[in-house]
Write a structure and sequence with these properties.
The protein is 74% helix and 0% strand. By secondary structure, the protein is mainly alpha-helical.
Length: 117
C-alpha cells in the first residue's frame, strides 16, 4: 500500500509541476503529447482511481471508466507506460501493462453497457 501511495503522490506532483512550471513538463526523452494531450483529458480523481487499480488493489468506478474511455486508449496506454517505466516499478512492468489492458477492456465493456442503444 505504501508503494501505491508513493506512485499516486508522484503522479499528482508530476501533473501539478508540469502545469505550474512548463519547463518541467517534458524531458527530452518523454513524448510531449503525454503532457500536452493526455494528462489534461482525465480528472485527477479518476486518474488516481485508475492508477490504484493498475498498480494496486483498487477498483475503477463506473464514472471513471466512462472518463477513461473518453480519454482514449492511446492516452491510457501512454500514461500507464510512463508510470510503469519508473525505476522502482520497471521490474513488474509486464504485470502492470497487463493490468492496464484489463482495466481498458473492463471500462470499454462498462461504457458500452451504459450507452443508449
Amino acid at each position: 500500500m505504501a508503494k501505491l501511495n508513493i506512485i499516486m503522490v508522484s503522479f499528482v506532483v508530476l501533473v501539478v509541476a508540469s502545469t505550474c512550471i512548463p519547463s518541467l513538463a517534458v524531458q527530452e526523452n518523454e513524448p510531449k503529447k503525454l503532457w500536452d494531450q493526455c494528462v489534461v483529458k482525465i480528472s485527477p480523481k479518476c486518474a488516481l482511481n485508475i492508477i490504484s487499480q493498475v498498480f494496486g488493489n483498487g477498483v475503477v468506478s463506473t464514472p471513471c471508466c466512462q472518463e477513461l474511455v473518453q480519454e482514449g486508449k492511446e492516452c491510457h496506454d501512454t500514461l500507464i507506460k510512463y508510470i510503469a517505466d519508473r525505476p522502482s516499478l520497471v521490474g513488474k512492468e509486464s504485470k502492470y501493462l497487463q493490468k492496464r489492458d484489463e482495466v481498458w477492456a473492463h471500462c470499454v465493456s462498462v461504457s458500452k453497457a451504459l450507452s443508449p442503444a
